[in-house]
Amino acid sequence: MPTQNTFNENLNDYPRRSLGRIYSKTELLSEYFGFLPVELADDVYNAYNYVFYTALEALEKYLKNLDGLSQANIDSAIRQFECKVEQVLDKKFNVFERYLYDNILQISENNHIPMEHYKDLDLKVTEEQENLVDQELLKCRRAALSQKAMNHILNKKLNKLDRDSKEIESYLQLTQALSQTSENIHVTHPDDVIRFAADQCEQLRQSTLNTLRLINDKDLMQNLTAPDKRLKYMLEDVQNKLDAFKSKE
């Protein structure tokens, strides 16, 4: 979840300090504290995510030790639980982040925070220089926010790849166990069984074709003596099926 910048990015809305320099609230706080306010929010976000995923791994290990639960059921339940908790945590973090910026890290326009390192410095600059610097800072701030959002997306993808890797590893272990079991009890390999069945089907097909040719060559169907109606119907039915089979040959 990319953190949201709730400060107004319009330079005209920034409060003017007594030094004549136009500052954003985040810039002023960063200068005062020595770090970006958004870093504080990031640290909180990363901290509770670390706690959550550590607890999630412990829960998964516990479930694997229980009887009657398959690996597939455990993985499905863990994914559903993880998704629901992430939604709740992200929603609560949005509330916390708004409160952090709007109340804790909020400076009223009438308050002035003196900077010790500004003493005895001549900070007189032209308005044109101020605007240029402010515009460059604004570009850098937006670029940093974009980079942060991209880092968050990459971290989520990395977590998903880690989970997929663990799932693939479990399937690999299961496959190896099944292969070892089949070797120990001398189970015929599936490829050999399929080849044997195919050979048997081919032999049956050839035997049937040879029988059809023999019947046709000796004209056995025509040499039967005066069949009754029931027998004649059965013979015609057999002949029709034989003709249909020969047409597929």
Protein described:
By secondary structure, the chain is mainly α. The chain folds into 2 domains: 11-112 and 123-184, no CATH class; 190-247, no CATH class. 71% of the residues lie in helices and 0% in strands. It is built from 6 helices and no strands. It has helices spanning 25-33, 37-64, 71-104, 127-184, 190-218, 229-247. The longest helix is centred in the middle third of the chain and has 58 residues, at 127-184. The relative contact order is 0.08. Residues 1-21 have low confidence and may be disordered.
Key features?
elongated, 6 helices, 249 residues, single chain
Topology pattern, helix = H, strand = E: HHHHHH
| Residues in helix, % | over 70%
Radius of gyration, CA atoms, in whole angstroms: 40 Å
Distance between the termini: 65 Å
Q: How large is the share of residues in beta strands? A: under 5%
Structural class: mainly alpha
Shape, per Cα inertia axes: elongated
Largest sheet: none
Number of DSSP helices? 6
Mean pLDDT: 78
Low-confidence stretches are 1-21
State the total count of DSSP E strands.
Answer: 0
The total number of structural domains is: 2
Secondary-structure map with pairings?
Elements (H helix, E strand, L loop, with lengths): L24 H9 L3 H28 L6 H34 L22 H58 L5 H29 L10 H19 L2
Helix pairs in contact: 2-3
In short:
The chain is mainly α.
